[in-house]
UniProtKB/TrEMBL annotation:
This is Major facilitator superfamily (MFS) profile domain-containing protein. InterPro entries: MFS, MFS_dom, MFS_Na/Anion_cotransporter, MFS_trans_sf. The chain crosses the membrane at residues 16-33, 125-143, 149-174, 186-204, 216-235, 273-297, 317-342, 354-372, 411-435, 447-466. It is found in: Membrane. Residues 479-516 are annotated as: Disordered. It comes from Iphiclides podalirius (scarce swallowtail). It is a multi-pass membrane protein. It comes from the Eukaryota. Residues 482-495 have a biased composition (Basic and acidic residues). Its main location: membrane. Keywords: Membrane, Transmembrane, Transmembrane helix. Residues 1-471 form the Major facilitator superfamily (MFS) profile domain.
Length: 516
């Protein structure tokens, strides 16, 4: 049996197994993150209500709409009488908001340190331990909910704590495994969370209806534990540590990576990182990307609902279109970028800057056009979908640039940039609320979209002017120190040899003089 397994893994490249595990890892993270949105609908049901949503283009009756609760749409949860019977809860809108938001209270902080943890102890262990902890915490959800909503908040808080480690750790794994000519494909695997969101929203509903809300906790937890077994068996920190990789594939990866990446190191060179202008340019670009994503996820549906009078979140496949567009375009852009790089049609820096046109500038332009679409729901949904779709090119820009600058510290760089970028999730709803505080007309929404588009476009322009795809000297800072020590030692040794030789010649000359 072991022989058969070895033959199978010789046929299937280890890099493909790794790509699938990275993709499904992101899927698992988002499955455990977003399932609470739908679970709350079953846990805190409200009776059917005839609510008319006023908008400039008309109104839509949401009595027959089964609204999805989004993290970003917490403010839209309405107060209503609750039915408390047989396992459902009488939680207020504020309590539900705290349950949903607790995931993000510590997520940016652990995202900041997750990369450093993976660089120090290995991404395989970091992802495994974080995923097991997330599965256990999810399985504890029903018991915590029956105890008190505060207990459920605590489990969600620690779920976010564990989840924050995973994405930076995956970037470390990509840096150690992905040859430069295949990095775009590997980074596209990090879009697995997009499909995880869509599938979770699609399958949780039937699960809730047939088996009750508790199963929507237990099933994802069980699937995660099964996935952890596959992760442990199929993934290794580096090609040299993988037990089933072929010698040919191991040599190909190590030769392609060269001496740019190593698995053991001390603390990152924070002073060099924070004083690096290329890193600043990357962080600005990443912030613009996250701003645009949070903007589309929050402002887009709210605009279509409150201005156009159409509830996008209740439209089934329609609400999934922007996410699916981003997923598939990310794979396409990643493959195109790898092809360009392998054929040496453009330099790495040129690729990063050119594709900012697709990942940032075009999505920003589409945001501006969105507010001028008038009362056309189909055109508005098309604009949102195209904006998210073009943003899939981020696999060639901000999602890959930290790998260029310092593959040894890719997780650290991503964690820092993601920590800063996460603030966009808090800022975008505030800006939207400020400009639309007096109504929901096109005139009041126009500044909201101008701000969102400006952040998208300005961050891209900044990176185009100041960014680079070249590896930075501080990626090798430890090697440089070791090299300096070696050189000093060699100089000292040569100096000692020179002194000995000179002493020997002096004694020889003296001996000859005496003999004469």
């Amino acid at each position: 049996m072991a022989v058969i397994d070895l033959k199978v893994f010789d046929v299937i490249p280890t890099r493909l197994n790794l790509w699938l595990m990275i993709f499904t890892s992101c899927w698992v993270v988002y499955m455990l993150r977003v399932n609470m949105s739908l679970n709350l609908i079953a846990m805190v049901p409200s009776p059917p209500r005839n609510v008319s949503v006023k908008s400039q283009c008309g109104s839509s009756n949401d009595a027959l709409v089964n609204k999805s609760v989004h993290n970003a749409d917490i403010a839209d949860i309405r107060e209503a009488p609750r039915q408390v019977s047989g396992g459902v809860f009488d939680w207020s809108a504020e309590q539900q908001a705290m349950i949903l938001g607790a995931y993000f209270w510590c997520y940016p902080v652990t995202s900041l340190v997750g990369g450093m943890a993976a660089e120090r102890w290995g991404p395989r262990y970091v992802v495994l331990i974080s995923s097991i902890a997330s599965a256990v915490l999810t399985a504890l959800g029903p018991a915590a909910a029956r105890l008190d909503y505060v207990a459920l908040i605590v489990t969600r808080f620690f779920l976010g704590f564990a989840g924050g480690f995973i994405y930076p750790a995956l970037h470390v794994l990509v840096a150690r495994w992905a040859p430069p000519a295949e990095k775009g494909k590997f980074v596209s695997a990090l879009m697995g969370g997009t499909l995880g969101t869509v599938v979770t929203w699609s399958l949780t509903g039937p699960l809730l209806e047939k088996f009750g809300w508790a199963t929507a906790f237990y099933v994802p937890a069980a699937l995660t534990l099964v996935w952890c077994g596959l992760w442990w068996y199929l993934v290794a920190d580096t090609p040299t540590e993988h037990p089933r990789i072929s010698e040919q594939e191991r040599k190909y990866i190590l030769d392609a990576l060269g001496d740019r990446v190593k698995s053991s190191k001390g603390f990152p060179p924070f002073r060099s990182i924070f004083t690096s202008f290329p890193f600043l340019a990357m962080a600005v670009l990443h912030y613009g990307n996250l701003w645009g994503l949070y903007f589309i996820m929050t402002v887009g549906p709210k605009f279509v609902s409150s201005v156009l009078g159409f509830e996008l979140t209740a439209a089934g496949i329609v609400s999934a279109l922007p996410y699916l567009a981003r997923l598939f375009s990310a794979a396409i852009f990643g493959a195109v970028g790898d092809c360009i790089l392998s054929k040496k049609l453009m330099s790495t820096t040129a690729i990063r800057k050119f594709f900012c046109l697709f990942s940032h500038i075009l999505p920003g332009v589409l945001l501006i056009l969105l507010v001028y679409t008038g009362c056309s729901t189909a055109l508005s949904v098309t604009m949102i979908t195209m904006s998210m779709g073009f943003n899939g090119a981020a696999t060639l820009t901000n999602l890959q640039n930290h790998q260029d600058l310092a593959p040894n510290y890719a997780g650290t760089l991503y964690g820092i940039a993601n920590f800063v970028g996460s603030t966009a999730g808090f800022v975008t709803p505030i800006i939207t609320a400020y400009f639309t505080r007096n109504g929901n007309s096109f005139d009041q929404w126009r500044p909201v979209f101008f701000v969102g588009a400006s952040v998208y476009i300005v961050s891209a322009v900044f990176f185009i002017l100041f960014g680079t795809g070249n590896i930075q000297p501080w990626n090798f800072i430890d090697d440089d120190k070791d090299s300096d020590k070696t050189k000093k030692g060699e100089r000292k040794e040569m100096s000692e040899i020179t002194i000995k030789n000179e002493s020997y010649r002096d004694r020889k000359d003296t001996s000859l003089s005496v003999t004469s």
